[in-house]
Design brief:
Blueprint lengths: L1 H18 L1 E9 L6 H16 L3 H8 L12 E2 L4 E8 L5 E14 L6
Antiparallel strand pairs: 1-4, 2-4, 3-4
Length: 113
């Protein structure tokens, strides 16, 4: 009977932790580059920089406000990737932009109010 009680308590704890975790997708564009290869390299460099960030740095580098997040819970999930978009400029030239795609997880701070 003690085992069943412990199992139920553990299940409730896991359910409450899971309920407070959030996840969202973010995209970041690099500056316009003259070639696809240069745009891709800029994107890979940006992704690498994000992957090595602390939660505080990540919040700053993403430039996104998530509301009341629990301190030090912001993190990148696996599966980030880079794509390249071709852009036609107003003067008729073609440029390329690296697009960094990441999935971010965080926990919301429960207000005591």
């Amino acid at each position: 009977m003690k085992t069943l009680s412990k199992l139920i308590a553990a299940s409730l704890l896991i359910a409450s932790v899971s309920a407070s975790a959030f996840s969202t997708s973010e995209t970041i564009e690099t500056p316009v580059a003259a070639t696809k290869a240069a745009a891709y390299e800029q994107g890979v460099s940006k992704l690498s920089s994000l992957q090595g960030s602390t939660p505080g740095q990540l919040n700053y580098r993403l430039g996104t406000y998530y509301g009341d997040i629990e301190e030090n819970t912001l993190r990148l999930n696996d599966g980030g990737y880079v794509t390249v978009q071709e852009r036609a400029m107003a003067d008729g030239t073609i440029g390329y932009v690296g697009v960094v795609n990441v999935n971010v997880s965080y926990e919301r701070h429960d207000s005591d109010n």
